[in-house]
Amino acid sequence: MAAPGENLRINGDRLWDSLMEMAKIGPGIAGGNNRQTLTDADAEGRALFQSWCGEAGCSMGLDMLGNMFATREGTDPEALPVYVGSHLDTQPTGGKYDGVLGVLGGLEILRTLNDLGIRTRHPIVVTNWTNEEGTRFAPAMLASGVFAGVHDQAWAEARTDAAGKTFGGELDRIGWRGDEPVGARKMHAFFELHIEQGPILETEGKQIGVVTHGQGLSWTQVTIIGRDAHTGSTPMPMRRNAGLGLARVLEAVEEIALAHGPHAVGAAGHIDVHPNSRNVIPGKVVFTVDFRSPELSVIEAMDAQLKARAQEICDRMGLEVTFERVGGFDPVTFDPGCVSAVRLAAERLGYPHMDIISGAGHDACWINQVAPTAMIMCPCVDGLSHNEAEEISKDWAAAGTDVLLHAVVETAGVVE
């Protein structure tokens, strides 16, 4: 079957306009977005996406965790669909493109095929996965993880946010729970377009990242218990300062990650200090250590060293410490055939490209376990993401979606 011609391109202006329209929903305070999962803003964004899909002639499927599936029918009723998509939820201080580009880029593919009257043998389905970010309900990539059989649905629905509200309860509240069993769908292939969320592509002057692997990650929630006490009247030798224990453990996290370079990374992004009062020595801290590496053995070694170092620090300081694994996944090797389709599409279109390893987790990392999967990345300015200042160019968005279009259409098969 012939590959798509190099003149097949998406409408970059229409894609950009859609990105800007979606960004009006759940605006942040500094130019980005706060459209956290299962909030009223999330429901509004979903409704806008659904209306656009309807205008494009697509039927909409909805499963019991709120995953959305917009289908453009193929000519072969027996052919499994080619899926494409990402997520519409954001961080509390998120940007306008993280996840959203992959969903609306998928929609733009369908619009372009409609414009040109192109039919494919395989159906094409654009997906919005629920709760990719994991910022409100941990862990990240929650609904795609259930879809792939990694998580139990009941466990996922029982996850709580900081206010004690459950994932299942909030899904019902916003009215986006479907009847379709989670994971019932079978896929011919899955493609996800995403901003890089790092500086490599921009630094190297490449428009396209051909993602061959994904870093694995491990999230360990660490709880340190000391004793609340007055900051002014408690002698220094008599303090059991959980905040100081936190500081020393975080220094150890830095040392552990640096010792496993150059590809390993580690930090604590979520920290709660109790009672968080100016004149009270912290009696309890809860924080999550995030270790990542493309090698599973390295992640396991860093986790083991964290527990040993933190235990040693806390024993020395008279503090109690406990550990709970709250998220993670093994490193990912994406499907060689799908990766090749992405690379060949970039070459056909003349876009400068390079192979790259994803440093972040994505829904594609779970879907890779149940279907042939690949990812495409475009640069973002200064590699900045999970920040309201996140930015990409219209040309980068169009180039990434052009490559997505070609890879998906070639995989779905053009009907002459």
Give the DSSP E fraction (strand runs of 2 or more residues).
15-25%
Shape: elongated
* Number of alpha- plus pi-helical segments: 12
Instruction: Identify the quaternary structure here.
Output: single chain
- Uncertain spans, ≥5 residues at pLDDT below 50? none
What's the number of extended β-strand segments? 15
Major sheet: size, sense and barrel closure? 9 strands, mixed
- Assign the structural class, choosing from mainly alpha, mainly beta, alpha/beta, alpha+beta, or little secondary structure: alpha/beta
Encode the helix/strand succession as letters: HHEEEHEHHHEHEEEHEEEHEEHEHEH
> Radius of gyration, Cα only, in angstroms?
23 Å
Distance between the termini: 9 Å
Helix content: 25-40%
Describe what is shown at a glance:
By secondary structure, this protein is an alpha/beta fold. The chain has helices spanning 12-23, 40-55, 100-116, 142-147, 153-157, 167-174, 200-204, 242-259, 296-317, 336-349, 363-367, 394-412; strands at residues 59-62, 68-72, 82-86, 124-128, 189-195, 208-214, 216-225, 229-230, 265-274, 280-281, 284-293, 320-329, 332-333, 353-358, 373-378. It is built from 12 helices and 15 strands.
